[in-house]
Specification:
Layout (H helix, E strand, L loop, with lengths): L4 H14 L3 H10 L16 H18 L15 H5 L1 H8 L19 E3 L2 E3 L6 H4 L15 E4 L6 E6 L5 E6 L3 E6 L9 E5 L1 E4 L2 E4 L4 E6 L5 E6 L4 E5 L4 E5 L6 E6 L5 E6 L4 E5 L5 E5 L6 E6 L4 E6 L3 E6 L7 E4 L5 E6 L5 E6 L4 E5 L7 E3 L6 E6 L14 E6 L4 E5 L4 E6 L6 E6 L5 E6 L3 E6 L5 E6 L4 E6 L5 E6 L4 E5 L4
Antiparallel strand pairs: 1-2, 3-36, 4-5, 5-6, 6-7, 8-9, 10-11, 11-12, 12-13, 14-15, 15-16, 16-17, 18-19, 19-20, 20-21, 22-23, 23-24, 24-25, 26-27, 27-28, 28-29, 30-31, 31-32, 32-33, 34-35, 35-36
Amino acid sequence: MSFSSDEVNFLVYRYLQESGFHHSAYTFGIESHISQSNINGALVPPAALLTILQKGLQYTEAEISIGEDGTLNRLTEGLSLIDAVMPEIKSQKIAPKVENIKTEPTKAEPIIPSEINGEETPAATTTPAQEETMDVDQSIEIPASKATVLRGHESEVFICAWNPTTDLLASGSGDSTARIWDMGDNSTSPNQLVLRHCIQKGGTEVPSNKDVTSLDWNCTGTLLATGSYDGYARIWTTDGRLSDTLGQHKGPIFALKWNKRGNYILSAGVDRTTIIWDAATGQCAQQFSFHMAPALDVDWQTNNSFASCSTDQRIHVCKMGVDKPIKSFQGHTNEVNAIKWDPQGQLLASCSDDMTLKIWSMKQDNCVHNFKAHSKEIYTIKWSPTGPGTQNPNMNLILASASFDSTVRLWDVDRGACIHTLTKHTEPVYSVAFSPDGKFLASGSFDKCVHIWSTQSGQLVHSYKGTGGIFEVCWNSRGSKVGASASDGSVFVLDMRKL
């Protein structure tokens, strides 16, 4: 068995993506020509690089630990990475002490839990069969027969989103396609429309070989916008026809959103700019160049004002027709991954690799709240569709945060307090989504699980384990179906009415 340089490069590229280092992944992918390799990303399991490294270390440890006479040298326990790659140094370090090893037989040692981030986790002694079972009550586990699995993508599926008016589910993948799946009630075998992202090369259209990074439906559900690593945004009709191509970014697009009225599209790119596009003409209405590093996320506040965040640790609020930010927020000490306005557009939430979640108001410069409960990077955040001015005014407004510390937290922003910590996931959580009535929260993690929680009690009510790490979860407009997309190329739908 051997590795090609292409395979090593792809493992590093995938590791960077899975760890949330999307800009590093992009740069490394360009320099190592990932797009020109023939590796099918859907066949590479999550955490492949770490798995291979761990197995290599275990083999090296075994090689060093077993003496020529076949006996175990217990002084090699706790082998470090340096020890593994420099075994001759290790042998020099332990040689003087070999004569002091007791040779009496020892009793079997108990399994001692290890502590990670303040929580006890079982020592690494589980069998493969045990790893495949979820640590949840079987009564809430959703059987595979209750899920509709959608196959077709040839690489990881980063994003998915429901049409706001019909049961059409859109998905975007590393195979340079988006797909629209018809999940109507009468569809036992859903049709799929393949939206191929192509570029002009030598006078002909060829696949871009770039990831589809973002997608969003307009408010009426008649048009789908997609953003890609090839630097183009595209507008598609529900029958899969390419309506327009928007090309002014110089590099990958990381985020893309329609405004509520549906006349403008907002995008954020690695070129440090954000652009407002006129959806009717496909032309750039205004380009904003205020960030000093790649822009990672954008969110509309009104139909003509928005916020943007960046790896430069800053947040800008901009307005169409104004040539400088109308407000800027500073306080994060690492890149800002996501921003979201509350349903009324009064409070702006932001989350960062600095492990904090902050709440901002246009009325002041400093943050209103600075939440520090997470122990690792916070990847994304979502507001509940509840509170004053919403369809659910009698329910408190809640903010959900998803972190690489494997937890989801629910926050009562009015009180400035964490009301629930959701701890059943065992790997980084990439996505959270509230049901339309705000009563439930779906979360998706790289432990392959989608969990459904009660937002009132914080209890886990349903759980489903897929076949790949979960990048995105989303609810349809009626709150009857949950869609999810995964690292193994699968997309699946859970029909909540059947549970």
